[in-house]
Amino acid sequence: MTNELPLTKEAILDAAEQVLRRYGPDKTSVIDIAKFLQVSHGTLYRHFASKAALREAVTERWLDKSIAEPLEGIADTAKGSAAEQLRLWLETLIKKKRMYAVDDAEMFVMYADVTLETGDMITMHINRLMKQIASIIERGMQAGEFKPDSADAISRAVFLATSSFHHPAHAHEWSSETIEEDFDTVWRLLLSGLK
Amino acid sequence: MTNELPLTKEAILDAAEQVLRRYGPDKTSVIDIAKFLQVSHGTLYRHFASKAALREAVTERWLDKSIAEPLEGIADTAKGSAAEQLRLWLETLIKKKRMYAVDDAEMFVMYADVTLETGDMITMHINRLMKQIASIIERGMQAGEFKPDSADAISRAVFLATSSFHHPAHAHEWSSETIEEDFDTVWRLLLSGLK
């Protein structure tokens, strides 16, 4: 007996996130999520064409809430030194990734998998983050704190040059004893390149 | 009927590399390699305790021959500007990785898998590469071309900051249209940080 009430996308994503956390992304099927919602899997497929589409939508919402939105707050706070703001932004990104890799391992593993499939969603997420860095770098350039250059190209380079500290494929390196020191040296190099 | 002649490690690695290339790393079993060598799989297991150990040994030899040794030649040629030498070293590493990802896909996929398992072998390979960069950076520091600093820490930072261009987990990003431009911007930032 299923309860075929109209479903919102948000309600499906809430349910999917709970079920994915409980069983892990590999073991969760669309049927598990349908059962949890007490609807038929046909109903679910009317909202999401495949398990892949559902995983991507859950990951997208998770990345927005857990990563992009909190970082937006830092990027929008335009006071003090742009270098300090940029370092805070990068360190917050890195800390959040490291924390979620351990404390929200199911979501993190799913996000790592979705990243390897490189859909448009991940590109959009990265573009959103790079726009935030660009706004900080642009402010630094306007204030004469950073050398004039293309803020977009430089922010892309800063994001790429710090990948090993925030890209999920490097998560197994984050428990290294030298990781803080390594980031510090990369940061010093980049900062003296920006100035 | 098997032909139990004494086997050298080199002969086993030669055979394993051929069989792995033919069937791909996932589909190759130790039995396939034993058959190819016309020995029992027991004989093979006396040399390599597991399929994982054999894959690691094949990858180690492949990395030495294809990556570390050719780069050693560049690191050892101490003439002209250290900045140009460092850029050539990095570009050669990046070009080789990109070429092998396409032209030697089976070996590359196996290497990418072995890297994720992060054994001591990969750490040793990376340390070997970082020593090569350190020798270039040290020369640049001694010549006053680069700011004085710890050559080891800086070479580690340069290697990490260019990971997205040479770490196998990023291989799917290497077909991006902006990859050359991206490397160029990262390089400019790092170089102006070194100077």
UniProtKB/TrEMBL annotation, chains A, B:
A UniProt-annotated Pfam family: TetR_N
Domain HTH tetR-type: 6-66
DNA-binding feature ranges: 29-48
PROSITE patterns with a match to the protein in the record: HTH_TETR_1 (PS01081), HTH_TETR_2 (PS50977)
Coiled-coil portions: none
UniProt keyword terms in alphabetical order: DNA-binding, Transcription, Transcription regulation
Single Gene Ontology MF annotation: DNA-binding transcription factor activity
Record's protein name: TetR family transcriptional regulator
Organism: Paenibacillus sophorae
